[in-house]
Amino acid sequence: MENWELIIIGAGAAGLAAGIYGARSGLKTLILDEKMAGGAASDAPVVENYPGFPQISGGELTQKMVLHCKKAGATIHEIETVTALDFTGERKIVKTNRAEYETIAVIIATGSHYREIGVKGEQEFRGRGVSYCGICDGPFFKGKRVLVIGGGNSAATTTLYLSGIAAEVVVTHRRDAFRAEDALVKDIASKKNVQVFWNTEVKEIKGEKLVNKVVLYHNKAGETKEIAVDAVFVQIGEAPNSQIAREADLEVDEHGYIKTDVFQRTSVAGVYAAGDVSSHPVKQVGTAVGQGITAALEAYSYIRRPYYRT
Ligand code: NAP
Question: How far is the CA of 149 from the centre of ligand 1 (A)?
């Protein structure tokens, strides 16, 4: 069994920030990710609120973090899935589909996944017009009419990105106002090819081989109608990737986010959570980075017991 001092699960913004601080503190640090390193932020078409980078793609920003993390000395294993955690002993056990590791401390930074809308046609047309990622699938719909569902920052940034590719972007939001940031809402209002349908819910996604229409329900007027679209981008928020943590008996809140204190400590000593999987109420790249840093410094104190933390 391989021995490490710090194992970080998840190589998104939180995990990579933790990796930089862990490795620079001299901890033998391993980061595991079931996908390629970069995390959810790498799907963001454009990031305009990460300090120091007025405008950068999520992919470029997270790749800079990956390089920084490797330069700091952390080891990153990509495409390696954690299958079980055992926190019952003094040393923690991390099992993956490839190996079994022993470590002193663990930081869980597994992020979150896209929430589904749960209507007829969503599963059937997934990958055939139904998408959860504008930057991944938007370019397939150049010059077409696409629909975005949601009223938060994800829906807003995806709408803005798609407005530069598609001929027309229709946004449906179940309320009469966005909850997205003002700057994004103003940008959307200035786009000639974006049309917002307020108080509108998508009830069904229809098509033949590919999506070709949606059934819309106006929840104030009580009216239903069909409109033609070539794609549906579901942007209605996220849910935590906390299953392995729950199976290891870490405490989670009522929505499944891992409960943490201000030091990112969880209910088990030596185990920390950072980023979107944690119960921290703000889900931003910047806050994920901050939580990753806090978790790594706390893990360092736990592992090395420095004179200033006796
Ligand atoms: P969010 O802020 O939770 O917004 C989800 C949106 O989807 C809300 O408008 C919600 O409607 C709507 N919604 C939820 N369930 C729905 C359903 N079943 N049917 C129809 N609509 C539904 O999620 P998010 O936009 O994905 O953002 C997640 C986090 O990432 C946020 O903290 C956000 O600030 C952050 N983020 C930031 C940026 C950025 O550039 N700053 C970009 C992306 C994400 P209601 O309004 O009615 O609740």
Answer: 10
